[in-house]
Structure formats: structure tokens, C-alpha cells
Amino acid sequence: MSGRPKVLFVGKVRxxxxxxxxxxxxxxxxxAPLVCGVLDPETAASIRGVAVSNNFDGAAFDCLPNLEIIAxxxxxxDGIDVGSAAARGIVVTxxxxxxxxxxxDSAIALLLNTLRRFPDAESWLRKGRWERSGPFPLSKLTLxxxxxxxxxxxxxxxxxxxxxxxxxxxxxxxxxTRKSDxxxxxxxxLLGMAAAVDTLIAIVPKTPETYKAIDATVLSAxxxxxxxINVGRGWTVDEQALAEALEAxxxxxxxxxxxxxxxxxxxxxxxxxxxxxxxxxxxxSVATRDAMADLAADNLLAWFDSGRPLTPVPETPR
Length: 318
Known about the structure:
By secondary structure, this protein is of the alpha/beta class. It is built from 13 helices and 12 strands. Helix 1 links the parallel strand 1 and strand 2 (about 25-30).
């Protein structure tokens, strides 16, 4: 195919991706989801690349017969049918590493806010209650002396662990296989780790194995001083079981940045006084989102220039 490669933006993708691509490509846009017939056959046949934010199902591949690469704006790519991509020889890329520090920082902040109730304390001050009613009540929970278990010790999990070292807490982890270079306590099962710690931080991707892995049994194992922090996927937590555990005092508190059916948050979690809830903002800084956009665009540019993307996902051709 001659001329500039054509790239299709599917749905909402950060505009900086288009700015980074500049005049190197011809950009075409369409609303998500992509369905056959939205583009005329000639245009559809000319598309070589797609930029998307984790939303490209198997049927969409049939619409673009000459697609070569899908650049995902984000680390998680569970919304992209990588099996269909691999079967067609299509490369899928994501944006790892550039958001590790931001998410790890957010995980620690969420942990501290959950334990020490800093958002509630600020609200107490802003509503004038400090002046009217006196000091904010002492927090019942502290990070001091805690044992923390990290569910998922990938790039972000390791960044969280490194930050926790400075707090002097015990650090454990559970992954499918032991990491020989990780200087932390390994547990071969999630339930076993939950029984051994009082603080559980979840940072695992959305896979069949992680679906509601944090269930009533795991929460019970954490115990009445237990705290759950989730900055991975809402998919990982049985939200009904969590709400019941919080109400019953099975665990002490939970801090969540992600939910099963975003942006919907279960009423029971909203009503629970022992929660700290955030609207999926762990990586939501301009600097980090710009870096993600740049990497998504650079994957496309590298592919069209050399046939070698920068950060292909393992399941598809490289």
C-alpha cells in the first residue's frame, strides 16, 4: 500500500496520541464499538493500524481485512480479543512501565487514607467541626506493625513493594510462580497469604483465574483487623462478599480504586463507613496519561517504520 499508513481511532483515545502521530499517518475516526458497515469497504481495506482504549472484540477484526497492528492506550488489554489478533498475525501493543510509579504511589496513598481516614479528617476540618466539636477522632487503624500481602508482583506490584519497605512493614506476595529475585515472603496460594497477613493489596490483571478471587473465604482469612486495597481490577473482588464482610466486621476496612461495573459503585460499599473509594484514578495524572499516549503512538510509528513495535503483548506476534 502506498502513501501514509492509515490508522483508525476506535472510540475515546487520548488526543495526544493523534498529536504524536502527526502527519506520519492518515487518521480516521469512528465511534466504538467498531462494526462492519460503519466504514465503506475501500476505507476499511486501507486501514493498517488501530488505536484503541481496551475495546476491540473479535467481530471488529472482520471489518478490517488488512489490519496489522492494534495500539492499546493502557496496560490492561483484556478488552481486546488477542486470540483473534494472534490467529490473524496482528500485533497488539500496550503501555507498560510508564504508569508504574503513579499507580504505586496511589496504592500507598489509598492504603494510608483507608487506615488513617485522612479524607474524613479533611472533611471534618472543612465543615468547621474541628472548631465546633473539637479534634477529629483518633484513627483506630495504623500502618505501624502491619504485615502486607501483595496479590500480583508484576511491574506495579514490585513498585508498591519497594515503597512499602520504607514503612518497615512485613511484605509477602502471591503469584502463580515464585519470583527468584524478589526479596519478599512467597505464598503459593492467595488464601494462605491472606491468613498470614492483615493487609492485602490486589494488583492483578483481569483473567479467568482472577475473577472474584478475593471472596468471602479470603476476606475471612484476613481477620477483623484486615484491610483490603484494590488498584488492579474490580473483577478481582466479590463486591457483595466484601460489603458483607465490612458490615459484619469480618475485616476492618477497604480502599478501592476499581470496581466490577464502572462507573457504577454498589450502594452497600458507598454506605459503608469503613471504606475509602476512588473513581479509578490511580494513573490519572496528566504526565502519566501523556506518557501512555506517547508510547501508544510510538508503537504505531515504530511498526510502520521498522516492523518492530516497542511494547508488544506476549500473546501476539512481535
